[in-house]
Amino acid sequence: MPITTCIFDAYGTLFDVAAAARMAADEPGRDALAAKWQKLSYEWRLKQLQYTWLRAVAGAHTDFWTVTQNGLDYALEATGLDGDEELRERLLALYLELSAYPEVPEMLSALKNLGFNTAILSNGSPDMLAGAVESAGLGPLLDDVLSVEDVGVFKPHKSVYDMVGKRFGCTADQVLFVSSNGWDAAAAAGYGFYTTWVNRAGEPMDRLPWTPQRVLSDLTTIPQIASSNS
């Protein structure tokens, strides 16, 4: 079936998850953070993801904002930066206003001009996603922003991917699904989506039963990929 609908993960795919720590580290008086911001950003993201998986398996769902705070608290302690409440609050505030990667607006605009449905499908809570979309100015380029809060479990649970067909009335093989998380792209391929892994960091392929159909270093060619499968 031809592709009709292009679905994007949010964090790390459209929005730069390292931006909060990087921007805070550039602010005056943040010497301690400046020396450790890359490690903090890595630990924060890793724990954020790990906590979603563990909560999904354990049936202990909470909203993604809570998970994000839990991950940050772990990362601050792991880097010896815990105890600075002002820094914690600043990092969380910046996370609500993450910048989009440079190619994102033009890419989404091209998809809309070609007639594709466009949407986010994310672990993020609705308020978090609304803030990021508004801050990056992506609202007019998206038909919807779908949050796992509607089903009460994190990716890669099947019910999350089910949300796409229910919203757009399409079959799985009409969906181009794009994620920067290799495990997410792989699981979505197993679900039946045509998937693209945006492997910005050049990481190895996850050892899972499924693999994404495409691997890219950024999102620039997504409109061409969607069109070639239409």
The chain-level structural class is alpha/beta
Q: Kindly state the number of beta strands.
A: 6
Question: What spatial form do the alpha-carbon principal axes imply?
Answer: globular
Oligomeric form: single chain
Share of helix, binned: 40-55%
CATH topology annotation of the largest domain = Rossmann fold
* Straight-line distance between termini: 8 Å
Main beta sheet: 6 strands, parallel
Arithmetic mean pLDDT: 97
Please compute the radius of gyration using only Cα atoms.
17 Å
Strand content: 5-15%
Give, in spatial order, the strands making up the sheet with the most strands. 3-2-1-4-5-6
Structure write-up:
The protein is of the alpha/beta class and 230 residues long. The chain folds into 2 domains: 5-15 and 99-228, Rossmann fold, CATH 3.40.50.1000; 19-95, DNA polymerase, domain 1. It has helices at 19-25, 31-34, 37-58, 64-78, 85-95, 104-113, 126-136, 158-168, 182-191, 222-228; strands at residues 5-8, 117-122, 144-147, 175-179, 194-198, 214-216. It has a 6-stranded parallel sheet with strand order 3-2-1-4-5-6, with helices on both faces. α1 crosses α5 (85-95) and α3 crosses α4 (64-78).
